[in-house]
Amino acid sequence: MARAGLTADRVTEAAADLADAVGFENVTISALARSFGVADASLYSHVKNVQDLRNRVALRAAGELADRVTSAIAGRSGKDALAAFAGAYREFALAHPGRYAATQVRLDPAVVAESAATLRGNETTSSLLRAYGLAEPDLTDAVRLLRSTFHGFTSIEAAGGFAHPRDLQASWDKIIVALDGTLRHWPASNVRADRDPAGS
Q: Which residues span the membrane (predicted)?
């Protein structure tokens, strides 16, 4: 039996792989137990319930995405950093659809507050935008613009929804140029806020 050697980390990793294979919404204790060849009860010493399991997958995925974008922009600045960040985001979303879906789930603030991975990802994004001279509340608005753009494009791409023969990479590159121009000429707000853009 595969019960021997089970740990919370191994269970979470297997759940993340299962999410990529069958969809994050289809990750259940029963489905995961079957993948290990064990009874459902064998997993409850490692995770509390399916919500705890999904939270663990979401946090792991957030950490993996944060590591990718942080590594991608290291030593870069301006449009070069933006393009590297966007490229790493897109590659992760397309290569790991289940993990990516997990990063889009809104978690309990208490869970997020204890996650170094989530905080690392937020700080990487904020640092990228602060380099454009943005501060709150413009920083949060810009985070929402990038997130909406990248999520929208990759979601449509993953679904095969772009029917026009125009090369997707060419469109993506043009979008990055447009975003860079927008960030460089951002209309500054007169109202300042102290809100952290985490979870924007």
A: none
**pLDDT tens per residue across span 9-63:** 999 999 999 999 999 999 999 999 999 999 999 999 999 999 999 999 999 999 9
Q: Is residue 198 part of a domain?
A: no
Q: How many domains does the chain have?
A: 1
Pair of tokens at residue 76: 């870069």
| Nearest residue to 43 (alpha-carbon basis) of 74, 66, 11 | 11
- How many Å apart are CA 82 and CA 47, to the nearest integer? 37
CA–CA separation, 120 and 186 (whole Å): 25
Q: What's the CATH code of the domain at 111?
A: 1.10.357.10
Is 135:143 a contact under the CB 8 Å cutoff? no
